[in-house]
Amino acid sequence: RNFAQLLGTRATLELHNGNQDAAWTNLLACTRLITAWDPGPYEISHMVQIVCTTLAYDATWQALQADGWAEDRLALLQHEWESVDFFRGLPETEAFSRAAAADVCQRERQEPLRPSFVLRELFHSPRNAWYGFTRHWSQIWYRHHGSYDYERALLLFHRDRELQVRRALQCATWSEMCPLPGATNMVPILVTFLSKYQTHVVSALDRLQWQLRTMSQGQSLLGLAAGAEAQRRILIAAIALERYRGRHGSYPKALQELVPEQLQ
User: Fold this and answer.
1) What is the per-residue pLDDT across 73-124, written as a single tens digit (0 to 9) for each?
2) Inter-residue long-range contacts of 38-46, CB under 8 Å, 24+ positions, other chains counted
3) Which of 6, 57, 58, 187 is 20 to 30 A from residue 74's alpha carbon, by CA?
4) How far apart are the first and last CA of the chain?
5) What SS3 state is found at 120?
6) Cα 148 to Cα 158: distance, rounded to the nearest angstrom
């Protein structure tokens, strides 16, 4: 993210100083941080790509205010943005989250249980000994019963999220997509269920959700991807308009005039 911001700023600065070749190099590098990067199936990976998209969007919008861009450079820039698909990996990301959650639960059950009390506390502090004893048996019960309930709930949650994402991606427009569950706002993982079992795994997953929710400002990954897709389409249209103006000396009266010479 910091690198994308640096490249975008350098591109704008080079344009200000009249160094269009250097500006082009930085702008293309900033763009390819998004277009040439295939994010892994992790939410944070997609979120970073989307943040970088906004930075590249701002830099490109500034660059398009300068005249004198060669047709081949504009065509290459447009081709770069036409090659991106922000939605393609989202179902796989939900599937990976489901598999990762199951793996975490299974590894937690393999960890050795440490007793929460010692026998000598029965004489020095019976109350503390009783608390440690009941806590230890609670851990045993969770290991053999509660952890399976928790794993099952996680699997069902991520299964439902994957199905919802796949259903949303079948919609033709955002207006059809946004009323679906979890399309716009992030769905918290089992808030009521998490309160029943406070193990280190539960706490870790809770912290991860809080971090993701803070970074996304409460928006769902699908909603963030839709925002990046809108920016992508705006840039493609803007670049195509500049290419049209370079060939014809003026902008078209309607976007339809860009088809099929500049736009598909």
Assistant:
1) 999 999 999 999 999 999 999 999 999 888 888 888 887 776 655 555 555 6
2) 38/89, 39/89, 41/89, 41/92, 41/93, 41/95, 41/96, 42/93, 42/96, 43/93, 43/97, 43/212, 43/221, 44/212, 44/215, 46/86, 46/89, 46/90, 46/93, 46/221, 46/224, 46/225
3) 6
4) 31
5) coil
6) 15
